[in-house]
């Protein structure tokens, strides 16, 4: 709805002045009455002057009567229905309430996401610190590994040096012993017994060597196998007697073989 430029309220009995601005009739009268000039006044909105007094039609020709208008004219405005405005206000109020609820929900979600983001940031910082500690541990392990590797190589080189020095000393001692043995041993020419004297002595008779087990076994293979005579059992439990006889026969064949070897 339109508002008055003087009272800043809804227009009541609106009137218009020549400049086109609309004010309340009561407000405009008060404004004109407060002025010092009784014939002219200024618009309270744009400060444009306008005449207050109207000429008398008796002294004005009739052809100009249509162009003479009062400076303050009544204005009739169509005010819309209050029910439509009320419905519009209710709809806007509902929209505002819905927007307020949605805003509250969004604020809650933002707060929840903010908490999660802070937790993730703290976890990220913890992971970064842990990664730095792990990297530092890896560097320390590499240093320990390098130091141990260096110590191992030094120990290995010392062991190699120790192993090589005895072999060198041993070879040196062997060479010295060989030289001294050559110096100590007499030459063949200086030996008192000559080779001719050794060759002139008659050879000693060779001693017969005893026969080996292999020759005995070969000779036994050539000889016929001993004959074993089985006797019939006289009693039911006479296994001992038959086995003893079998052993006697076997021992007899072994004694014959040993006698032949001695001969």
TrEMBL record:
Gene Ontology molecular-function annotations: zinc ion binding
Keywords noted in UniProt: Metal-binding, Zinc, Zinc-finger
PROSITE patterns in the record: ZF_RING_2
Composition-biased stretches (Basic and acidic residues): 151-162
SUPFAM superfamilies: RING/U-box
Residue ranges constituting the RING-type domain according to the UniProt record: 4-47
Region (Disordered): 151-177, 193-242
UniProt biased composition (Polar residues): 163-177
Record flagged with keyword Zinc: yes
Keyword Zinc: yes
Protein name, entry field: RING-type domain-containing protein
Protein species of origin: Boletus reticuloceps
């Amino acid at each position: 709805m339109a508002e008055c430029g003087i009272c800043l309220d809804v227009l009541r009995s609106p009137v218009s002045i020549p400049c086109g601005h609309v004010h309340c009739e009561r407000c405009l009268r008060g404004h004109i009455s407060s002025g010092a000039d009784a014939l002219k006044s200024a618009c309270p909105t744009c400060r444009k002057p306008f005449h207050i007094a109207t000429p008398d039609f008796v002294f004005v020709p009739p052809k100009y009567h249509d162009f003479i208008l009062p400076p303050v004219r009544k204005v009739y405005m169509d005010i819309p229905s209050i029910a439509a405005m009320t419905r519009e206000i209710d709809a806007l109020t509902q929209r505002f309430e819905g927007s307020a609820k949605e805003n509250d929900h969004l604020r809650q979600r933002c707060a929840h996401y903010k908490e999660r983001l802070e937790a993730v940031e703290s976890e990220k910082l913890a992971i970064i610190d842990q990664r730095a500690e792990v990297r530092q541990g890896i560097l320390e392990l590499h240093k320990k590994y390098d130091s141990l590797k260096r110590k191992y190589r030094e120990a290995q080189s010392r062991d190699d040096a120790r192993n090589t020095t005895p072999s060198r000393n041993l070879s040196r001692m062997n060479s010295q012993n060989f030289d001294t043995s050559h110096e100590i041993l007499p030459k063949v020419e200086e030996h008192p017994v000559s080779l001719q004297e050794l060759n002139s002595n008659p050879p000693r008779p060779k001693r017969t060597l005893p026969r080996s087990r292999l020759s005995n076994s070969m000779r036994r293979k050539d000889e016929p196998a001993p004959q074993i005579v089985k006797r019939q059992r006289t009693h039911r439990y006479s296994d001992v007697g038959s086995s003893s006889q079998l052993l006697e026969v076997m021992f007899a064949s072994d004694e014959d073989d040993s006698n032949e070897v001695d001969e």
